[in-house]
Design goal:
With 456 residues, the chain is an alpha/beta fold. It is built from 14 helices and 17 strands. Strands 1, 2, 3, 4, 5, 14, 15, 16 and 17 form a 9-stranded mixed sheet that branches. The protein has a 4-stranded parallel sheet with strand order 6-7-8-9. This is 8-oxoguanine deaminase.
Length: 456
Amino acid sequence: MAQRIVIENCSIATVDADDTEYATGHLVIAGNRIESLGAGRAPEGLENVGRRIDASGHLVTPGLVNTHHHYYQWITRGLATDHNLFDWLVALYPTWARIDEKMVYSAAQGSLAMMARGGVTTAMDHHYVFPKGSGDLSGAIIRAAREMGVRFTLARGSMDRSEKDGGLPPDFAVETLDGALAATEATIDEHHDASFDAMTQVAVAPCSPFSVSTELLRQGAELARRKGVRLHTHGSETVEEEKFCHELFGMGPTDYFESTGWLGEDVWMAHCVHMNDSDIAAFARTRTGVAHCPSSNARLAAGIARVPDMLAAGVPVGLGVDGTASNESGELHTELRNALLINRLGAHREAALNARQALRLGTYGGAQVLGRAPQTGSLEPGKLADLVLWRLDTLAHASIADPVTALVFGAAAPVTASFVGGRQIVENGRLLHADEDAIARSTREEARRLARLAAR
């Protein structure tokens, strides 16, 4: 019989289909699943209870789900701080093209640690820079995620359109078409787990329209569908990208993606800032998902994504940190607040998003776009026990009556406990399975080593 953990005396926001909430409730974990939850105290006479948690003063929510990131950028934070996307990429690609396995492992640890201690239980990484001779970068990222204890999707990226082909990356920073496809397939074969409680999954993820060939997009989509995995890329991030697509392909990004097989319920795209009505309708019709990255969009002056319109149309939308060279904080729980506030600067003003919609973006919406909604993203019996206890009875939040409003509108709430598949990974804001101070030292050393290499 699986050992049980009983959590009691807490507010609960389930983020289920009915947005069920309990002002004072309980939740029972059995093994790696949620066994039951409801109002009041847990049932009497439960057997094999290994632990009881009095969660008075806490809100329990599903664990946060991050849908877009670039972990390697942890060691290039704070650079090119006054650039738009294209200028920022041109400034940083020569540095990124010198990364190696040790740097990528350390950067992945830093990125994962920052998210995990802030309530992320399911994470992803879109890694697309594979310099020749740099080692097993995919393996290093997956190892870091496994050690941290988070559920993880590696979006195995690629680039084959360099400066000589009219792209942005330096020539030495890209792969060949055949090399990228072969390496992506090998990564799927070695690491992808399709099971219900999988800790590691792999997606096919050519980087962007301006860094990959049409053939890599087309054959990448065919590879993903042959292997039964998801597809991810950047789309419609900036006006410059839209101009690039019109000049090179004679059509906008969404039409271009559709022409290469890149719209569908197995696809999600990062940013999607510059979408017209027909673009949104195409995403809704095909159930193509969106990773909304509000802080990064603001940092790079990309614009405000039309998230309220996407949601109204039925487009699946989740939240993303994005790489920490364009969102130096590297946290997802602050994106709940930023998504709400930034979207209220758009056309819908105060009606754009409310606190519960923001929480849904960061939990169930993210699980949807990663293809994990049957397993995680909401608190329901039978789902994986991926959940967070947010402390809301301290100075920062105690005078806000509604706990979901406190979590979303208030300061970043402390994480008292975070569970992934019933295994606790955070306690009182500290990681249980990683040494944060050692990671800080390692990331500082690797950032300095990369800066020295790039300066040569």
